[in-house]
Structure formats: C-alpha cells, structure tokens
Amino acid sequence: MYVYAVTDAGRSGELAAVPGVTGAPVRRITADGLTAVVSTVDGTEFGEEALRRNLEDLTWLEQVARAHHGVVGAVARQGPAAPLRLATVYFGDDNVRALLGEHRARFAAALDRIRGRAEWGVKAYGRPQADEPTVTAPGAGPGTNYLMRRRAERDRAARSLQAARDQAGRVHERLAGLAVASRVYPPQDPRLSGRRDEMVLNAAYLVPGGDGDAVRGLVDSCDAPALRLELTGPWAPYSFAGLDDT
C-alpha cells in the first residue's frame, strides 16, 4: 500500500478520478477515527530494493512526486491532510490500520494544527543593483586600475548582497506576523531554482485559509528594491503537518 496522506475519518469526497502513482486507483482505509489515502502498487517497483534504485532515477522520481502531490492536493481540498513522505509503503491494509492506531494521537494533533490553514511559500532573490562609477586612480598604470576596479566590483556585490539579506529579513518578519507558524529553509541550489541570482530567503508560512489576499498584498506592497520576490501557494501544508512538529 502506497500511503499519500492521513485525514479525518468520515471524509467522502470523490477521489476516483484522481490518478495515483503509476496510474493506480486511489482509495481510503479507515481506522481509529482516521483515514489513510492509499493506492495498491507493485512490489517489484516499490519494494525496498527497487525503491533504492528507483529513487536514483530522476525521471521516475519526478513522475511519482507529481502523482503524490496531485493526490495530496485533492485530499487537502476536501479537508485537513497530513501528507506522508514520498514513497511511504506498507504491506497490506492491516499494516496501514496499525499505523493509524499506533500514531493516532500524533496524526490527530497534526490535523488540528493545519485545520483551516494553508501553506504559502516565499522565495527572495538578490536583485542586481545599478552600476556605480568606475573607480580609477589618475596616473596609475593599467594593472593598478584593473585591481581597483575588481575590488570595487567585489565591494559593490557584497553591499548588494547584504542589502538583499537585510530586506529579506524584514519581509520574513512581516510575513511571519501574518502566519500561525513559519519555516525558513536553506537556499535552493541554483540548478533547482533555475535562477542565477542568489536566493536570500526560502520560507514557508502556515496561514489561515481566508488570509491569502493579505499574504499576496503584503508581498506585492513590500518596499524591497534589492529583492525579487516569488510567492507560491496556497499548498497543502507539507511543511507543518509532520508528526514530529510541535
């Protein structure tokens, strides 16, 4: 059983049209007042040894991640959903029921924490600043002037980066003030972000469901000339639904 998420028991929204991983049908397993959303998958592809190999295959990983996210998103639109990690697999319905029973209190706490709330993501990138006048020393030779220009460029880049970090800190403080909880993550590798500019903020915010306009308005109105801001969401609250969150 591939397990996508856990939600409240009694949810009966339609999931039959939502394709699971490898196109497998999605269904529910209920026990102890909770429901796990699952698909039956082939052990030759999702068994322990096969998973080790497949998780190194970026094409396979992307397909599974997209399907996983699609199912979690469909569940979250019907009520609170605590997503499980990608490729969480149990052998049989009874083992899934045992999971729900063993961790009932922790799942219930996670669902209560995210109930009626959504996750928004904000990334901030340093914006290149306007060039300053070229520094030269009258009478100095070409080598000296070259070194002076290089030093001035490094100093200008350092000032620009510090300004971006300072402004990103203020943006984060304002967004965290709107949120019930927030998480700051390490900057993404430029190969993942697809941007050459340096990322200076990578954060998630857990926001009451009706406050999305306030988040958009705050980001749109931020006085942060050293930044490019990127807002995403609302998402299922992956960052705040873990069993170990406090």
UniProtKB/TrEMBL annotation:
Protein's name according to its UniProt entry: GvpL/GvpF family gas vesicle protein
Leader peptide range in chain numbering: none
One Pfam family, short name: GvpL_GvpF
Species of origin: Pseudonocardia acidicola
InterPro entries found in the cross-reference section: GvpL/GvpF (IPR009430)
Intracellular or extracellular location(s): Gas vesicle
Keyword list, A-Z: Gas vesicle
Top-level taxon of origin: Bacteria
Family note: Belongs to the gas vesicle GvpF/GvpL family.
